[in-house]
Specification:
Blueprint (H helix, E strand, L loop, with lengths): L3 E12 L2 E12 L3 E5 L6 H8 L7 E6 L2 E2 L4 H6 L1 E4 L11 H11 L4 H14 L15 H12 L6 E5 L7 H16 L3 E6 L1
Parallel strand pairs: 3-8, 6-7, 7-8
Antiparallel strand pairs: 1-2, 1-4, 4-5
Length: 194
């Protein structure tokens, strides 16, 4: 059995005459933190969208968690967490409602949502903010909460698209500590940054 969490070979994506991703090849080993670097507009988000099964590649092939992203996108999505570049939380819902919503989307039982949600909010020191609307949270808290919610179903692999964009240096440091702790616990982390 391979220890590869991601295998991309000659992966590309073209939109009309514009090439967003130009024949990239790389491997990500299980349990590692893989930094995917590039300037804004370099195709990082497009690459993630292909690897998560949200966008079909124009060429090449990729497997994520052992499944072909083109032929088995649903199997890929069951095994991954994804924190998009834009906030993936719902601002008009409370912290607790977001946890419940995403837990349900990930197929967790009510008991799992309750137990994991309580544990997660306690770890993040957000238990007192459970009934607060996400829109009222500081940017750094939103980012940490979005990261934790993407891990709620305990995926083998998590994709983080520019997770520290727009946060202060202290929050950025805390966020990277969360990333390293997640990898140390055995989850593969694919993170983009410029």
């Amino acid at each position: 059995m391979s220890d590869l969490a991601i295998q991309a070979r000659d992966l590309s994506r073209v939109f009309g005459t514009f090439t967003a991703v130009d024949h990239i090849t790389f491997d990500v080993h299980a349990g590692e933190v893989f930094g995917f670097l590039g300037a804004n507009g370099a195709g990082k988000t497009t690459a993630i969208r292909m690897l998560t099964g949200l966008l079909a590649p124009s060429g090449g092939q990729a497997t994520v968690a052992g499944f072909d992203v083109l032929r088995h996108p649903d199997e890929v999505r069951r095994r991954i967490g994804y924190m998009s570049q834009r906030f993936s939380l719902y601002d008009d819902l409370t912290v607790g409602e977001n946890v419940t919503l995403f837990g349900g989307i990930y197929g967790l039982t009510d008991a799992e949502i309750r137990d994991r949600g309580h544990s997660m909010l306690s770890e993040l020191a957000l238990e007192r903010a459970r009934d607060q609307r996400v829109a009222a949270l500081p940017v750094g808290w939103k980012q940490k909460l979005a990261f934790a919610v993407a891990l709620l179903h305990r995926p083998a692999l998590i994709f983080l698209d520019e997770p520290t964009s727009g946060v202060d240096p202290i929050t950025r440091r805390q966020f990277w500590e969360m990333i390293y702790a997640t990898a140390a616990a055995g989850t593969t982390v694919f993170v983009t940054t410029h």
